[in-house]
Design a protein that fits this description.
The structure holds two protein chains of two kinds. Chain A has one domain. Helix content of chain A is 77%, strand content 0%. Chain A is built from seven helices and no strands. In chain A, helix 3 packs across helix 4 and helix 6 packs across helix 7. Chain B is globular. Chain B has one domain. Helices cover 67% and strands 0% of the residues of chain B. By secondary structure, chain B is an all-alpha fold. The two termini of chain B are 34 Å apart. Classes of the chains: A mainly alpha, B mainly alpha. The interface between A and B is large, with 106 and 113 residues.
Chain lengths: 145, 138
């Protein structure tokens, strides 16, 4: 069994990727005392008055290196983006605004917040998942985008 | 040391997103498509992450400082508010429209995918817009 067989089973791939994300979040909170929430780390880079830029940059550099490190081991990951440009621009604005108002996204609320047992994060995660389910239902099955 | 660990955490997090399939928007939409050919495999991503995360946060919550001596910065906000609910709703709609949430979008943009770059530019504009609206009076 080589690496590609392993990543081709979506359940094994999902679970092992998830465990790796969990290890990363665990290392960050136990060693740095911080929450691995991507929208918050990124959003802080855009606030001129925030002095704590270096660690945010280091985190983003690590994430940016990931696809290149991955490709040393195996083929580039498959990615199909069905949305067109206008749809992506609208979606991007909504994700940027929404995660800012909600103080978190799939990582900060979904992974770290639920791990911490935070009621706010559990409610946030249920809300954005529900919104995602309904949006895909409407766009795929009713409108046919 | 702290910054080196931060880089490593970002790298592992990004690799986890790629390995799990979260960086493929069509797969994410397949997970959100309950009424279609539903692909539940991405539920295992959050399951696996929370399994490890819950153990780590149980330890972290009891500490004032991290193992490397940094202050433990966990959120002290409790209770629900409009921002949390409406923000999450708006985020979820954007997620369903594109298949991208912030982490996978950053990784895919760094890999040079043109559509991911468009999405990330727009997402950053949304975050900047929030700063303009909400932080004007400060």
């Amino acid at each position: 069994m080589n690496l590609s067989d392993f990543t081709h089973n979506p359940y094994i791939a999902g679970l092992s990727g998830g465990l790796l994300i969990g290890i990363a979040a665990a290392m960050f909170v136990l060693l740095n005392g911080r929450i691995a929430g991507i929208s918050g780390i990124l959003g802080g880079l855009l606030q001129a008055d925030k002095g704590d830029k270096l660690w945010r940059v280091m985190f983003m550099l690590g994430m940016a290196a990931a696809p290149y490190v991955y490709q040393i081991a195996t083929d580039p990951p498959a990615a199909t983006i069905e949305a067109g440009t206008v749809q992506l621009i609208i979606a991007g604005l909504m994700v940027g605004l929404g995660t800012s108002y909600a103080s978190g996204c799939t990582s900060g609320h979904g992974v770290c917040g639920i791990s911490r047992g935070s009621m706010r994060s559990i409610v946030a995660t249920l809300t954005f998942m529900m919104a995602g389910f309904i949006t895909v239902y409407l766009t795929r099955h009713l409108i046919g985008l | 040391m702290l910054n080196l660990n931060t880089f490593l955490v970002g790298l592992l997090f990004g690799l986890g997103l790629i390995i799990s399939g979260m960086t493929d928007p069509s797969k994410v939409i397949g997970f959100l498509d309950l009424a279609g050919a539903w692909d539940p495999s991405l539920a295992f991503v959050m399951g696996g992450a929370v399994l490890i995360g819950a153990a780590a946060f149980t330890v972290a919550k009891k500490r004032q400082r991290s193992l490397l001596g940094a202050p433990m910065q966990l959120s002290s906000v409790t209770g629900l508010d409009k921002g949390l609910l409406i923000g999450s709703l708006v985020f979820g709609i954007g997620w369903g429209l594109s298949g991208f949430c912030p982490g996978p979008a950053v990784v895919s943009a760094a890999a040079g995918q043109p559509k991911a770059l468009i999405f990330v530019a727009s997402m950053l504009a949304g975050m900047a817009l929030y700063n303009m609206i909400e932080r004007r009076g400060e």
